[in-house]
Each structure stands twice: as structure tokens, then as C-alpha cells.
Amino acid sequence: MGDDDGQRHPGRDRGDRRRAQLVAAGVEVLAERGWAAMTARAVAERAGTHAGLIHYHFGGFAQLKRAVAAALVEDAVGPLVDTLARSDRWPDGLADAVTAGAGHRGSPGGRVAAELITASLQDADVRGELAPALRDARDRVAAVLAGQLPGPQARGLATVVVAALDGLLLHSLIDDDLDLAAAAAAVRGLRTDDASGDVRRASPPVRRRPPP
């Protein structure tokens, strides 16, 4: 039977599971050995299969690398999007995201993401895999922010948010004393116009003329 009757093909389910297994194996190899060591053979051995299945399921190793990069970005961005969507004020949602990130500092997932970002600076292939995933991340964040801000402003803020969280991740891996709680409190303290979501700016001081 086809998908129109609401049932899935067993072969398609097995293919989905195998693709997920290969992506997970790629993430594990990346975490342990770095991007340069993430070869088709290494991933296949970790997944307990042969390299030919990578071409069968992904069309080539480059597509698998793209899937690994997308999975890592999704692990980072998915919770962020969910957190922002739950908040009526984007500063509160962003502060909650920073707080959640503080709970995962030093985690294997964070180190893998940092490895991917670092590798992209030295390897054009890595950069080619990561850039589309980051663009998709910004688009998803912007779509959530668009409920509180005008379109251009939502897209601009999405760029800042994704880049800032990446920066906080890298800094937290380097500096154990980085105060993410203070960062979250500072973001939460931003006042916004309830109608538009715009951050309010303090009025400039009034210059008074000295008495004659």
C-alpha cells in the first residue's frame, strides 16, 4: 500500500533508521577524532556496516557530511527555536536559551559543535556543509521572531542571536569562569515596546542652557 492510506513501507522505515544510524556514527567519529578523521570508512565501521551503504543511502560521502552538519546545527537550534516560541517576549526567550546552554557547557555536543565551527575556518568543504545549515537556522529563528518584530528586524535579530549563541558556546568551552547567568540576566533585562517588540532606547539627555 502507498502512503496515501496512512501506512508506511517497511523498507522505507529501515532506510530511515539506517540513515539515522550513519549520521549518529558520523557525529561520534567527529566528537572523538575531529572532522579530518571522519572518513567514509571510519563512519561505516562505527555504524557496523560497509562504506557502500553510505553511497546507497546518501548518494555519496559529501551528502552524509552535510547531514552530519545539519544534525549538529539542529541539536543546537531546535531547542532555541522551541524556547523562543514559548515566550511572548524575545528577550525572555533568548535569556532562557542562554540559561539552558549554561546547563550543557562542556558537554560532548558542545565540543562537537565547536569542532565543526573551527574546522570550517580551515576547510572549504566543511564550510560548504555548515553554511547552508546555519542559513536554515537563521531562517527558523527569524520565523519565530516575526511574530513579535517586523520582518527585516526579525531577520537581522536572528542573525545576531544565532551568532551570539555560537560565540557564547565557544567562550564557555575556553573560559570556565564565564558568567552565563549574568549574560542571561542582562538579556532578560532588555525592555521592549509591548506592541512591536522593539527594544526601547533611553531618551537623550536634555541640554539646558546655563542661566545668563
Structure write-up:
- The chain is mainly alpha-helical and 212 residues long.
- The relative contact order is 0.10.
- Helix 1 (10-33) packs across helix 2 (40-47), helix 4 (61-86) packs across helix 5 (90-102) and helix 5 packs antiparallel against helix 9 (180-188).
- The protein contains nine helices and no strands.
- The protein is globular and about 55 Å long.
- The longest helix has 26 residues, at 61-86.
- It has helices at 10-33, 40-47, 52-58, 61-86, 90-102, 108-120, 124-145, 151-174, 180-188.
- It has a domain at 62-188.
- 69% of the residues lie in helices and 0% in strands.
Which properties best describe this structure?
mainly alpha
